[in-house]
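Good morning N.,

You mentioned wanting to compare the apo and holo forms, so I went ahead and generated the holo version with 1,3-dihydroxyacetonephosphate. This is what I fed in:
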Amino acid sequence: MSELHEIAKALVAEGKGILAADESSGTIKKRFDSISVESTEENRRAYRDLLFTTEGAEDFISGVILYDETIRQSSADGTPFPKLLESKGIIPGIKVDMGAKPLAGSPDETVTEGLDGLRDRLEEYYGLGARFTKWRAVISIGNGRPSEYAIWTNAHALARFAALSQEAGLVPIVEPEVLMDGGHSIDESFLVTERTLRAVFTELFDQRVDREGSLLKTNMVVSGYDSSDQADVDTVADMTIRCLKNTCPAAVPGVVFLSGGMSDEDATARLNAMNQRGPHPWQLSFSYGRALQAPALKAWQGDAANAEAAQQAYYRRAKFNSAARTGAYAPEWEKEEVPA
Ligand code: 13P
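and this is what came out, ligand included:
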């Protein structure tokens, strides 16, 4: 089996998922603003350091997605972050897109940039220890959106990113995110996610991307946040699985969900419900940013004295999401103070 296939499989190993710690400078500033912590390079480093040095997290975490700044930073003892992760058996990855920018001719929509010079950057990231990559495309619902133009332009860029990553020996995590913001129904979320994934897999196929050496990262099919009719956990699980069965080839080893602003508990419970309905053609796992980090960020408050409490909070969410990988999570655990 090719190395790409092995890495892709390892990222969705049983009971494990991915920590998305690849917030861009702008996004991490927003997260730090929420706890009134200044976004300095040292604060960003210290925060990522506490996450990455959490003892035992490697039992639940297969890979960590880093940001360009983070992959070049080191732990307090001087060990470069990629080396530190590797030593724990965690695979380092890297976000390589340059963000979603207004789409010419349809300025209310976005296209993700970052293809220029990507081949050289991938080579550098491989040298720095990265073994997988991520590229996020953003699709929004409402006011006639999304256009076919936005869907196909983003799908084309995702496939170009994926093909270049594989050429460089890196497993691409292909991330089309249909935003959960808006007043849309879960049926609309289903239709837009289906249209988007169909376009993405058409482009991946046309651009000769090896599906077995890639992972899909996408949204769950949910009601828009502003909708008064919120679908329950069983409906979300059933519709998300149906959407994936209609679009995502069985050759793809895993689908890793983003949390997209869902509560920590919803993100875990919904993944759990999907895995209770298994087995599925692919592993269903997580690649959460906020849903793994929110309690840790809150516990930390930018104070080194709180690092241990923050690590415990992160460990707890990682453990719960690991249980959700096999459908073994129980919502009652949320009421307990100490990890179950
Ligand atoms: P969230 O889980 O916070 O949505 O972040 C995941 C991610 O990597 C988005 O690109």
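Strands lie at 17-20, 61-66, 91-95, 100-103, 106-112, 132-139, 171-178, 215-218, 254-257, 283-288.

Happy to go through it together on a call whenever suits you.

Best,
F.
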